[in-house]
Amino acid sequence: MKTLIAPSVLAADFANLQRDVEMINGSEADFFHIDIMDGAFVPNISFGLPVCAAINKHAKKPLDVHLMINNPDQYLEAFRDAGAEWISVHLEACTHLHRTIQRIKELGCKAGVAINPHTSVTLLEDIITELDYVCIMSVNPGFGGQKFIEKTYDKVRQLKAIITEAGANTLIEIDGGVDNSNAAALVEAGASILVAGSYVFKHEDPKEAIRLIKG
């Protein structure tokens, strides 16, 4: 399948958010990646339901909502109602992960699990066939503009092997430090969805940046 690109709105200009949303609408990007941070699960606060709904009002592509929050279960329906079509929760934040994934699917959304850099992909073996996608964090979650963690390539290959062995159709998403220098290698390792924030929005031509990492 073709590589899917999800620009991270966390790196957009919040004072000109509609402008940046419309730029993504007119680009080759496939999704809007929206990082929701609570200041507890990760050491930063981004934005919440009202901003998600405001983005959805202007977005012409699906919203991929990444919940970097504690107790995500209590907000799943609210984010679906705010426009989320893809929802990922962190393995590290979910006591009853299978139940959470089933609830996301009941809401009619694609269900994903995100894992931090220190978390082993082997922890997903028992649930991999239930997942639409896995989001591998390739930086420590909480802030944009961080350096890509090189160990990510090995994690992608290991996860791809788990998916193949299980006969699953789970997609692999990479979030953090993605740019045109590592995009092709990530896809070769097994990734299907690339999240890019700083590289896109700080580029002199964001649409060109998206085209370059899409390949």
TrEMBL record:
Catalytic activity: D-ribulose 5-phosphate = D-xylulose 5-phosphate
Required co-factors: Mn(2+); Zn(2+); Fe(2+); a divalent metal cation
Amino acids binding a divalent metal cation: H33, D35, H66, D175
Residues binding substrate, per UniProt: S8, H66, G142, F143, G144, G145, D175, G176, G177, G197, S198
Pathway participation: Carbohydrate degradation
Class of enzymatic activity (EC top level): isomerase
The keyword Isomerase belongs to this UniProt entry's keyword annotation: yes
EC number: 5.1.3.1
Signal peptide: none
Active site: D35, D175
Cofactor note: Binds 1 divalent metal cation per subunit.
Keywords, in A-Z order: Carbohydrate metabolism, Isomerase, Metal-binding
Cited Gene3D superfamilies: Aldolase class I
The family this protein is said to belong to: Belongs to the ribulose-phosphate 3-epimerase family.
Function comment: Catalyzes the reversible epimerization of D-ribulose 5-phosphate to D-xylulose 5-phosphate.
Protein name: Ribulose-phosphate 3-epimerase
The organism's taxonomic lineage, starting at the top: Bacteria, Pseudomonadati, Bacteroidota, Cytophagia, Cytophagales
